[in-house]
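Summary of Year 1 activities. Much of the first year was spent building the evaluation harness for sequence design. The harness presents a backbone, in tokenized form, and records the residue chosen at every position. We chose the following record to illustrate the format because it has been used consistently in internal testing since the harness was completed.
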């Protein structure tokens, strides 16, 4: 099923490395009339990324870039983004850190979703760290991407109670459900007229 992209929608590229569940929820969101985005490109650094299948299902162009040479990979990605007239980048479980130079090219146009209540627990293993730290709450954050890891301006957060019997896996599942709701809300918050 081909997506008809309304000309007034922001052409969006989603960057993934894994299962792509946030990608899937963003695609579904992009199909709504009220959505300010259309998803025109999926970019992954991992050819085995399960999320790439959504490119096939929803007929969205997908590209794989290997980050062995970061500079040349980023140059190629930037040229692909320009070629496809991309306005917005949504990072959704993309496990590579983008360079300052790359971010400068898309200043204020790169969003990320992170599975913690930033500024707490930047980087990896957030759920495990929240539990070890005996936090009462965790959650997820949608933020603008700047050159410091998980440090850009926060757009929206969703708080979730950590129960005594939560394992990192259980917590991850609970937070992922909220991520799927939060990302579209954050996009609406920024880009709604």
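For this record, the design step produced the sequence shown next.
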């Amino acid at each position: 099923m081909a997506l008809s992209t309304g000309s007034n929608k922001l052409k969006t590229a989603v960057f993934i490395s894994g299962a792509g569940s946030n990608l899937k929820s963003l695609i579904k969101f992009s199909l709504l009339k009220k959505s300010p985005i259309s998803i025109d490109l999926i970019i992954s650094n991992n050819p085995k990324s399960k999320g790439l299948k959504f490119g096939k299902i929803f007929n969205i162009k997908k590209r794989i870039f290997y980050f062995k040479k970061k500079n040349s990979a980023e140059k190629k990605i930037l040229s692909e983004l320009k070629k496809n007239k991309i306005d917005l980048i949504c990072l959704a479980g993309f496990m590579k850190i983008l360079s300052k130079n790359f971010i400068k090219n898309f200043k204020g146009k790169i969003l990320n979703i992170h599975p913690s209540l930033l500024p707490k627990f930047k980087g990896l293993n957030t759920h495990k760290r929240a539990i070890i730290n005996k936090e009462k709450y965790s959650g997820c954050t949608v933020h603008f991407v700047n050159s410091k890891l998980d440090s850009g301006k926060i757009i929206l957060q969703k708080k979730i109670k950590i129960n005594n019997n939560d394992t990192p896996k259980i917590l991850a599942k609970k937070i992922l459900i909220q991520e799927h709701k939060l990302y579209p809300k954050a996009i609406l918050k920024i880009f709604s007229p």
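The domain at 10-191 is CATH 3.40.50.170 (Rossmann fold). Quantitative recovery figures across the full test set are reported in Table 2.
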